[in-house]
Structures are given as structure tokens and as C-alpha cells.
Amino acid sequence: MGIRNLNPEIAMHHLVLTILLGQFTESLIKRPPYNMDELRTRATKFMQIEKHVDYHRTTLVEASEKERNKGVRPPTMGTDRDRYCLNRGPRFHNYTPLTVPKGKILDEALQVKLIPTLKQA
Questions:
Q1: pLDDT tens digits for 43-72?
Q2: What are 92-107's pLDDT values in tens digits?
Q3: How many whole angstroms from its chain centre is CA 99?
Q4: 50 or 85: which leads in pLDDT
Q5: Is residue 108 part of a domain?
Q6: Which residue, 107, 82, 100, 104, is CA-closest to 115?
Q7: Contact between residue 66 and residue 53 where contact means Cβ atoms under 8 Å apart
Q8: Alpha helix locations (H) across 6-101?
């Protein structure tokens, strides 16, 4: 949008106010540009810095992912318990009915240490 006879100082002031906070904005506030050419030059330098930082971030992330994936087996289906939890249903269609009370089975499983006992808080 063109505004006739716009004072460059006013234009730069409002431009600085509308830029998102960051290192570039902080540098403009610390040392305001003298003219639009200086503003463009400084903006170009900061854009080059951002591109450089982004490039290094992506290369570091890719390198770290390669290191993590070295020697790692592909994901498997997991244990029977994992499959049971994923399906959210019974594992078998029918089960043998119990002839002994559940409490007695639990006591015996605890004695044989099939089920770990919980530590008291």
C-alpha cells in the first residue's frame, strides 16, 4: 500500500512494531536502522543466519536418527500381552470354568510367586 509523503522514520517505527519478537527485533530496538537500505541489509543477514541454523538443526536431527536406528530391529508385533491389549477383547472364545474359588487360586499363585506382591507405601 502506498502512502504519499510518508516519513521513513515513521514507516520503520511501525515496521519494527509489527515484526514478531526475536533476535532480529531485539537488534532493531537496540540499534535502530538509519534508513530502509540498512534495514534491508540487516534483515538479509538475519535471514541467512536463520537458514544456517535450520540447516544445521535438520542435519543434526537426521544424523542422530541414523545413529539411533543403527542396529535397531524393525518393530515387531510384541508379546501376547501387547496383542491382547491392542485387541481389547478376550484372547479365546471360551474358557474352562473354574472349580475352585478365585481367592484360593490367588493365594496359591502368591505362594508360588507367580504374581509379584505389591510393596506397601
A1: 898 889 888 888 888 888 777 777 776 665
A2: 778 888 898 888 988 8
A3: 52
A4: 50
A5: no
A6: 107
A7: no
A8: 8-18, 23-30, 36-69, 80-87
